Amino acid sequence: MSGKNIREKGIQSLLFLSGTVAVVALFLLCIFLFREGILLFEDYPVSSFLTNTKWFPTASPPIFGLLPLLLGSLIVTAGAIMFSVPLGIAAAIYISELANPRISSILKPVTEILAGIPSVVFGFFGLVILAPVVQRTLEIPTGQTALTGSIMLGIMALPTIISISEDAISSVPRSIKEGSLALGSTKWQTIYRVTVPAALSGISAAVMLGIGRAIGETMTVMMVTGNSAVIPGFPSGLFAPVRTMTATIALEMGEVPQGSDHFHALFAVGSVLFITTFIINILANYVKRRYRFNL
Fold this sequence. Notes:
Elements lengths: L2 H36 L7 H6 L3 E2 L6 E2 L2 H32 L2 H14 L4 H20 L7 H25 L3 H9 L4 H12 L1 H16 L3 H6 L20 H8 L8 H30 L5
Antiparallel strand pairs: 1-2
Helix pairs in contact: 1-12, 3-6, 3-9, 4-6, 5-6, 6-9, 7-8, 9-12, 11-12
């Protein structure tokens, strides 16, 4: 066997080993997370955990209700997506199709740099700058609300949505765009009737990954949403303090006795969060594969 073949076999083995380690690590993480979470249900009914409207772990007896935490996470995430998706797709269209190449070469790297900013910086900005603005503008008791969290999570999800959507739009073959223009379509008609539909799979995957980024965020929502573990009303819940699943784990895990029901309840919350984000990523991959060859 030649030296070239030996190197290729070595590289293949290394890549296989890397993939195997990643899969095994994920499998072990699942076992650890679910094993600790399931122990809660030896003494606490599953139905009460899923449907109870209160989270009072220090009460006697303790009350572990997932519902207010789940709804808080969903409200904040839904608000973030409503804010970030239109803005992110519009920015991706501008960078890919409308901007001057020199401007585009600046905007794309700057957008990707935003993804590397620590979440605590976003949270500090939201707490010090955005929360007072929301409080004064809406004339509400506190600016630490689901709306503030939604805006900050939307800003954090923007780099993911913009970057992946821009790549999808740029990958549309130039011949399709030129054919549309040759048939008499304007540039704008070509964008929204040809280019965007052709890149829909990548845009959909970007939205799904943006949702996963938002729902799994911890530090920012912990700092700006008020951390009130009650079921938010509708539609006023967007302007009231809420608590998310991630914030609950971060706030309480360091203070609970190991092996207690409260300890296992936090692992159960983490299991629900893990399943939620796992499903979102599976859907994103399915959408991307399903429509990959539409072009």
